[in-house]
Amino acid sequence: MRPAAPLSSMTPHGLLRRRAVVAVLVGAPSLCMDALAQPFQGRRATPAQTEGPFYPVVFPKDADYDLLKNGALNYPEGQRVWLAGRVSDLAGRPVAGAQVEIWQCDHAGHYHHPGDGGAADSRFQGFGRVTVAADGGYRFHTIRPVAYSGRTPHIHIKVRLGSRELLTTQVYVAGDPGNPRDFLWRSLSVADRAALTVTFAPEGDGLRAVFPIVVAA
User: Fold this and answer.
1) What's phi and psi for 184, nearest 5 deg?
2) What is the pTM of this model?
């Protein structure tokens, strides 16, 4: 590497250039710190969707994270899936104390709801509720959703914080052929479809789907 020219041998123009470079280098750390201190503005809330007609009228006695066990009954039907994610606010902080609810139809397309004729499989819990962990995490053990009555496969989700309802929405299966024919999925913008449509990927003896939730808490 060539040694830097001594200051005494530099022209006035070269000396000014060197001082300018030194000033930038000295100021760079403070510029980086200022950038890191700026609030993160890139997060957007998870899109809301309709609750639908089959939100439970009566909650099951067993309403925990595992929809494949309804009391003493085990549900062997459908394709098992772990649905998991994290509930955070627009600043990326976990929403302490939030509750996540899910509800969906059984493997034959029936809900535990009087409006659906009461034909749902009694072994399937059909509804679950969990309180998020300290890091905002949640998870449910359920089945990959199935299509019914013109609807593409989906799982309903609701987020509450105390008496406040923060979000009601639906999560869809990426790549399902019924999505383009579903009137609610089609009504979403491209960005909203991306936010609500997730991959149900093989994992172990079942599937895993990750659905992050962002709310204005």
Assistant:
1) -75, -40
2) 0.81
DSSP notation for 102-152: EE---TTS--SSGGGTT-S-TT---EEEEE--TTSEEEEEEE----BTTBP
Which tokens belong to 175? 């790549």
Q: For position 160, which CATH number holds?
A: 2.60.130.10
The position carrying tokens 């052929």 is 177
Tokens at 198, concatenated: 């997730």
In a domain, 52, yes or no: no
Which residue segment(s) compose the domain that 22 sits in? 7-37
Is 115 in the same domain as 187?
yes
* 42-45 LR contacts (CB < 8 Å, sep 24+): 43/88, 43/90, 43/91, 43/92, 43/214, 44/90, 44/191, 44/195, 44/214, 45/90, 45/167, 45/214, 45/215, 45/216
Answer whether 108's CB lies under 8 Å from 94's CB: no
Q: Which residues of the chain have pLDDT under 50?
A: 1-3, 7-41
Q: Are 115 and 202 members of one domain?
A: yes
Q: What are phi and psi of 137, to 5 degrees?
A: -75, 150
Looking at the DSSP bridge assignments, the partners of residue 176 are: none
